[in-house]
């Protein structure tokens, strides 16, 4: 039913507690000049920094993170699923990177002793009209080379998930769960042990080409890029990789590169099953996605700590790192609502959006959706849970940018920067494969 549990729950908690606070040496700044600076201490930035330093141990690397600790935002607020690559358009970077990334993740966790579970996933059709879409997902998964997929009937659904009701499901036994923040911190530990320098509490506010060096110094010639923090600190480097997540568009802008695609934050609020009701769910249970709407819908997700999350909804966040209902930032709000792309997206999905807001406010409405899959569930069985904020890239026509986007710029500064402009879900599942691709691209662009 579930396999590959590397540590029992109590051991997992101790492992996470040890990893959650970076060692003091991670906070030490050391040298201020480096061959490559990576901006962003989320899972993509950490995986990329790790891959680069392992390939190029003779170069110097730093990772700059604006918070006092690593991986506090998207990486630390996601559902914890190791996706297998079923949903994504064949041939897309999403499909290629997710399938390879999931394989690499399992290998990495096995090697490092990071706890995980292959608890599987059922994508469940509860209405006959969903069956053609379910079968199409199966075909897509086959094309994407997702292993061991099978379509199962109502009886087989009940054998795997005794409390789940559906008429057909797509069974993905290689879907798993892991604590992605713990994985990311382990990447950071690898990076540091290989000689990398992590500088926390460094919010990049300006990226520019250095002025001519002082007499007798070759610093400006060897390390021509200056990254300045909002507190006035500086780091020099030869090349820059930005993995800014919710701030990827702003990092691009301050370096003189394109402001689009624009990042619009969407908050997802989860419910949590009361512990005495955890028996209702064994593995991941997902609905058949509706192609008319941009997100995957409410689902059931077991967690490594033994809890079960239900949801999320998807509503516009009024702050890029706003995890609470009333979190508000004027700049973030104005940037979002004044953007033509968001205005067009809202008009195309206004009914769906109002429904998401309603379900976010009224727990019973969210439970009603979940009862289609587990009828025994009741509003009294759930509590309000955590929230996450998704960095959704939008173009000016209101289209969700669905695939990974990487770009740079022109001139002396732009030619020395690679921006990860969009790393949508399943970026965590794909992180090691993304890191390989980014390292390949940096080697090509910068002739490392």
Summarize the structure.
With 448 residues, the protein is of the alpha+beta class. Helices cover 34% and strands 23% of the residues. Strands 1, 2, 9, 10, 11, 12, 19 and 20 form an eight-stranded mixed beta sheet that branches.
Give a written overview of the molecule:
It is an enzyme of class 1 (oxidoreductase). InterPro entries: FAD-dep_OxRdtase, FAD/NAD-bd_sf. Its EC number is 1.1.99.2. There is one protein chain. By secondary structure, the chain is α+β, with helices and mostly antiparallel strands. It is about 35% helix and about 25% strand. Strands 1, 2, 9, 10, 11, 12, 19 and 20 form an eight-stranded mixed beta sheet that branches. Strand 11 (about 225-230) and strand 12 (about 235-240) form a beta hairpin. The chain is globular.
